[in-house]
Design a protein that fits this description.
3-stranded mixed sheet, 64% helix, mainly alpha, 24 helices
Length: 563
């Protein structure tokens, strides 16, 4: 069924909550392990209609944040979502209380029961009103960001549409693009500062209600992190600071030499080549035709997947006024259909987001068609789900010439370099959030000062050159995740460590790298992050010294592939 034929009906929340109570009672009373397994499948399917409706509403709302009807539907789910989540938690609580609960681990692997325990530990009826308030705060941030229009080049442009100007070879044009963006954020400075303060206070209040010191503790439970915690993440960040950042300084020196910009400022960083950055082929149809060829030739599984996605018009990737920034993949369970949202702006990032979100969608497509995997376990934790997307960016490399033509080698260098450099920024975002939630009374200026300290630690090569907004340390406000889904961002770093290993493996044996990737994908959400890495034969980055060798290999490759 094509996306525009999919019908939306606002769900009956009272009926769903009644069904949840019924399922919880059945879970508590299940007489044996087999009955409990059957019931797990049943409860997993019970939320399909609700999740489909919620995701349809969110898709339509983010495609046009100005549409009053879809704004009202988004408000409905913001208000009712916490109650539904808490009702599902009560089902998990009932499963955990059943003496036969170990049957679920035997059937579904290590993540099922551990995930339910995290769900129980992360939700509480006493936080419903606070959760509703948080949802409203996020929606307000999305409206401010999604509604951004700035004046440049005699045009009204969205934030994503500034992308090509930021990559212009004329430094004055680049500076003007950043200043236009900065002007918008500075104009909303008071509201953005206040919103973030309210979000921190809200989430910390939820944490205290549930017995946690602050939200930085609760977040590990809510993010369903299994097998590691804050200490492992701190060790990971330390390795990045100590073993990756020094290598990145070499990489940035290579970039300066390559571009001929001896002392690059922040506004120069998007320039990776003296004669301009690689440009993908123009035109929606041309790109989609190239994507179809690419995925047809990659494997039989991806061939079937891309036909399904394109034939059913499950992409909305072109930027326009009112559309929320960013990109995502979401699922429509009732239709067993993934959906991809993005904001193309005619830069190489368009290909990044295409292959990235197709990685998410491919995993979802495969999992939804495996009858052995319950809907609840179709997707792993976010740090693992991002492996699907980030590794796909690299594993499609043999076909990137279809999308870049003569710029293919430039894109390969840009993509590998950006992925490697990202590790530092991702750790910076994560450490910043730990500081914010552990010090919730910082003033807006003090928050910005902390961000600037972290810039020196993780990205010491940056010179903001008195740029508005960024220069005063407020650039973090442009990072949607910090407002919308706190503590998510480190997941990208953990998955990058896997993706870089897939990249290095693919250089010597692409067929083997793809086979490892497919093994990982097929485990869906039935294995933890470390188990998935072991499934693919990859190093676990929490182990001391595990990152140093990978960082050296990446630096060597980048040095040998300068264009």
């Amino acid at each position: 069924m094509k996306f525009n034929e999919m019908t939306y009906t606002r769900p009956d929340i009272d009926a769903l909550l009644a069904r949840c109570r019924e399922l919880a009672a059945k879970a508590a009373a299940a007489p044996d392990g087999d009955a409990l397994v059957r019931l797990y499948y049943e409860q997993s399917e019970a939320f399909a209609e609700y999740n489909t409706a919620a995701n349809l509403a969110n898709i339509h709302y983010t495609c046009d944040t100005r549409d009053a009807y879809w704004k009202a539907e988004q408000d409905f789910f913001d208000a009712n979502g916490p109650a539904v989540t808490n009702a599902s938690v009560e089902i998990s609580r009932a499963f955990l209380a059943n003496p036969h609960v170990d049957a679920l681990t035997e059937k579904f692997g290590t993540t099922c029961v551990a995930g339910m325990k995290n769900a129980v530990l992360s939700m509480d009826d006493r936080t419903v009103e606070l959760q509703q308030q948080f949802n409203a705060l996020v929606s307000r941030y999305q409206q401010i960001y999604g509604g951004a229009l700035v004046e440049l080049d005699g045009k009204q442009l969205t934030i994503p549409q500034l992308g090509p100007y930021k990559e212009d070879l004329d430094p004055a044009v680049r500076r003007a693009a950043y200043e236009a963006e900065a002007g918008y954020f500075d104009a909303h400075r008071a509201e953005l500062d206040e919103l973030y303060g309210q979000i921190v206070q809200n989430l910390n209040a939820q944490a205290r209600v549930m017995g946690y010191h602050d939200y930085s503790e609760l977040s590990y439970v809510r993010m369903n992190r299994i097998g590691y915690g804050p200490e492992e993440i701190r060790k990971f960040r330390d390795q990045v600071a100590n073993d990756v950042v020094p290598q990145l300084q070499k990489v940035m020196a290579l970039r300066a030499k390559r571009t001929g910009i001896a002392h690059p400022a922040f506004t120069d960083l998007p320039i990776l080549f003296r004669d301009g950055n690689p440009k993908p082929i123009p035109g929606y149809k041309a790109r989609m035709d190239a994507a179809r060829t690419m995925y047809h030739e990659l494997s039989p599984e991806t061939s079937e997947f891309i036909d399904f996605m394109q034939d059913n018009e499950l992409f909305d990737v072109e930027s326009r006024p009112g559309k929320m920034s960013g990109g995502y993949m979401t699922s429509l369970p009732s239709y067993k259909a993934p959906f991809i949202f993005a904001n193309w702006n005619d830069t190489s990032g368009d290909v990044d987001v295409l292959t990235h979100e197709c990685g998410h969608a491919f995993e979802g497509y495969v999992a939804e068609r495996d009858p052995a995997i319950p809907a609840d376990l179709e997707c792993p934790g976010m740090e693992s789900a991002e492996i699907h997307s980030m590794a796909m960016e690299f594993l499609t490399a043999p076909w990137h010439h279809l999308l870049f033509g003569r710029d293919t080698d430039k894109y390969a260098l840009l993509h590998a370099e950006d992925s490697f450099v990202f590790l530092a920024y991702g750790c910076e975002v994560d450490e910043f959030q730990h500081i914010m939630y552990q010090n919730p009374d910082l003033t807006p200026d003090e928050r910005n000062a902390e961000w600037l300290k972290l810039e020196k630690k993780y990205r010491p090569w940056i010179d903001f050159d008195n740029l508005p907004f960024y220069g005063r340390g407020a650039g973090w406000q442009r990072q949607l995740h910090i407002y919308e889904c706190p503590f998510y961002y480190i997941d990208y770093c953990l998955s990058t460590m896997a993706a870089l290993q897939f990249f290095l493996l693919s250089l010597t044996d692409h067929k083997d790298a793809w086979a490892r990737y497919l093994r990982l994908v097929r485990r869906a959400g039935t294995a933890s992050y470390t188990e998935l890495l072991e499934t693919a034969g990859l190093k676990v980055p929490f182990e001391e010294g595990s990152i140093k060798g990978i960082a050296q290999q990446m630096t060597d490759w980048l040095e040998n592939h300068q264009v």
